[in-house]
Specification:
Blueprint: H1 2-25, E1 29-31, E2 49-60, E3 66-67, E4 72-73, E5 78-81, E6 85-86, E7 91-101, E8 108-115, E9 122-129, E10 135-138, E11 142-148, E12 156-165, E13 171-175, E14 180-186, E15 191-195, E16 201-214, E17 221-232, E18 236-248, E19 251-253, E20 257-260, E21 266-273, E22 282-286, E23 291-298, E24 302-309, E25 317-324, E26 330-337
Parallel strand pairs: 11-18, 20-26
Antiparallel strand pairs: 1-2, 2-7, 3-6, 4-8, 5-7, 8-9, 10-12, 12-16, 13-17, 14-16, 15-16, 17-18, 19-21, 21-24, 22-25, 23-24, 25-26
């Protein structure tokens, strides 16, 4: 009698367990692990992006196969690898490969949606990626523009940023080979950045402005140099910023030659110079029986002169427009009417 009661109790418990299993757990897909928070990530080998793979362990709790549809990610920065089905009581991994720009200092959250044939119709996986030490510099190339000969070249600047530990003072070592001079000015208000989770840590984001000034430019021409930088934060970053500038003549006409015709007897002639540093030039045309200046006006760094051809229409003519400055320097351009050259 005692054994019979035990058997009945065992059968009742087994039946209850089986009923609970088929009612609640059969054909259920369970997420056993999640990659919700990544460790603190670092850009590798000077790359601008950081990469991390979140791993999610999944398990089929039932006797039948569970089919998985193609995963959909909330961000194009994340690609997902998942099996098309999981067998009875089978296990599998879903891999989420995230690649994001290291400039996203606050990190990135991505959600992954997977429809399946189990009792859990939708799987929603959440991936949080947090960045670690990071640097940037902009612009990638520093163009200082053009300046007139004998004029002072205004300085340009590029900006840098780097994360460092709370007790780390960042520094920049810049070398240009003597072509330009660099001065670094650090921002006095760095920003603290905190990462939650198992990889909890705090960094400080520092910014700086690097002023660049060419040294002793050597006459008219286009120049190029570069600033080689060693930037130290939590890590060391080595990069180079190309620098270019141009020295244009003390004064020059925009075109070397202005061509007039019967259909175009007047043309605007532009003189560029460092005004008012150079003073007001005296501008004349010759010969006076073929060309004349009908009006003029100041424009930016220089002036515009409307030159007219006043000679015979049936003949060619050669002339010149000249500018003479108070310091004795001059500039000129050719004036051509008809087939003369």
């Amino acid at each position: 009698m005692h054994r019979k009661l035990i058997a009945i109790a065992f059968f009742a418990a087994a039946s209850a367990a089986a009923a609970y299993y088929f009612a609640c757990m059969h054909n259920v897909l369970r997420i056993e692990g999640n990659g919700l928070v990544s460790p603190r990530l670092l850009p590798q080998n000077g790359e601008e992006n950081v990469r991390y793979t979140h791993r999610f362990a999944v398990r089929n709790m039932g006797l039948g196969r569970i089919r998985l549809e193609k995963p959909v990610s909330s961000c194009g920065c994340t690609g997902v690898e998942a099996p098309s089905e999981i067998g009875a009581f089978g296990r599998a991994e879903i891999l989420a490969h995230t690649e994001i720009p290291s400039s996203l200092l606050q990190g990135k959250r991505v959600e992954i949606f997977i429809r399946n044939s189990s009792k859990t119709p939708d799987i929603v996986l959440k991936c949080d990626t947090f960045l670690g030490n990071y640097y940037f510099f902009e612009p990638q190339t520093l163009d200082l523009g053009a300046v007139h000969e004998f004029s002072d070249m205004p300085p340009g600047a590029f900006h840098i940023g780097v994360t460092a530990g709370e007790n780390t003072v960042p520094r920049l070592e810049a070398e240009s080979g003597g072509a330009v001079r660099c001065e670094t000015e650090w921002d006095g208000s760095p920003k603290r950045l905190s990462w939650p989770g198992e990889a909890a840590s705090t960094s400080v984001f520092h910014r700086a402005r690097v002023k660049v000034l060419p040294l002793a430019p050597n006459g008219v021409g286009k120049y190029e140099s570069s600033v080689s930088c060693d930037l130290y934060g939590d890590s060391r970053y080595v990069f180079s910023v190309p620098v270019r500038w141009e020295i244009v003549p003390f004064a020059y006409f925009r075109e070397n030659k202005y061509i007039f015709s019967a259909d175009m007897k007047s043309l605007p002639v532009v003189l560029l110079h460092d005004f008012p540093r150079n003073g007001e030039p005296s501008v004349t045309v010759a010969p006076g029986d073929a060309f004349r200046i009908s009006r003029s006006k100041k424009i930016g760094s220089g002036g515009e002169y409307l030159v007219e051809y006043i000679g015979p229409e049936n003949s060619g003519a050669l002339g010149e427009i000249s500018a003479e400055f108070p310091n004795g320097k001059t500039a000129s351009s050719r004036l051509v009417y008809g087939q003369m050259n």
